[in-house]
Design goal:
This protein is an alpha/beta fold. It has 3 domains: 120 residues, Udp-n-acetylmuramoylalanyl-d-glutamate--2,6- Diaminopimelate Ligase, Chain: A, domain 1; 107 residues, Udp-n-acetylmuramoylalanyl-d-glutamate--2,6- Diaminopimelate Ligase, Chain: A, domain 1 (3-Layer(aba) Sandwich); 101 residues, Alpha-Beta Plaits, CATH 3.30.70.120. Helices cover 28% and strands 28% of the residues. Helix 9 links the parallel strand 12 and strand 13. Helix 2 runs parallel beside helix 3 and helix 6 packs antiparallel against helix 7. The structure holds zinc ion. The site of zinc ion has 4 residues, from helix 11.
Amino acid sequence: MPIKINQIIQFLETFAPSAYQESYDNAGLLVGQADTTLTGALITLDCTEAVVEEAIARQCNLIIAHHPIVFKGLKRFTGSHYVERTVIKAIQNQVAIYATHTNLDNVIYGVSHHIADRLSLKNIKILAPKKHLLMKLTTFCQPADTAAVLEALYAAGAGHIGNYANCSFRLTGTGTFLPNEAAEPQVGEKGQLTETKEERVEVIFPARLEGKVMQALHEAHPYDEVAYYLHRLENTYQQVGSGVIGTLAQAMDANDFLVYLKDRMELPCIRHTALVKPTVQKVALCGGAGFFLLPKAIQQQADVYITADVKYHDFFEAQDKIILADIGHYESEVFTKDLIASILSQKFTNIAIRLSNINTNPVNYLM
Ligand SMILES: [Zn+2]
């Protein structure tokens, strides 16, 4: 069975839904048509002209990148800028470009968790979980129908809390209604005030699934007029947000930890503040430009915060509270290629998934 590019994208987005990208981002299919049959997928951190050439040479008509090559509006395609040249080359050679960017950063098993795994951290949690991404549905059923309604809601993605599935709550009470002549009541008679025993059923779900959950409710619920409330919750969603925090199995001497970090992440160098903690056990980190999370890392009493793109004056913000380590943007995220490949290999076994061999890091070091 030939696989379409769209199937690859849909599967990646079950893992990293596009709804979780930041408002400034431009993740998604950037070049190419989703209904094209896939010849092979080339995974890269950045999509450059050289990567498009590599895709052509390796018979891949889809490039999956972490960073979107098109980030702001393009107004002309004359080839005067590397972004234009990359897009032109991809279109001319029928190579599609898809980016999974801040949506892959923001999911629990995304970019930062993958770094935490390389450092063998335990008890990994999101450092800054996001708010307002969860909703609650309350509905009312005849007790005999509750199980079927819940089953449908679970199948649509409702009822997940952390490591728990099928989460719901219900109370028994009395419902009242007066059906008019046009109604088709499941219980009671038209024109008669009815009192009936009902169950009030509550489930939580990610707001992005509202359409699916409401469709499941209406399909599974036997009432002609389904009574329900929807609430947007103030809760933080522990599965979605920026950065992660975790612990080392054993505390390490701070200098030894930096050596360990350099080794595990294959770094040419680390820029870091003074070793204000003699030992390191609690580690916060964020792949890419994550300086904005430093206050969160301090607040959660991490011994070290690892990220990239830290400016000179920003290093002062660590004060004597935490060790701030900048490991380089490319170096912090280059293993995202392995992450994307491992996600795809969970579902697709008969397609060519290649990791780009090109080092796209624009930053060089003279050691
Ligand atoms: Zn990045």
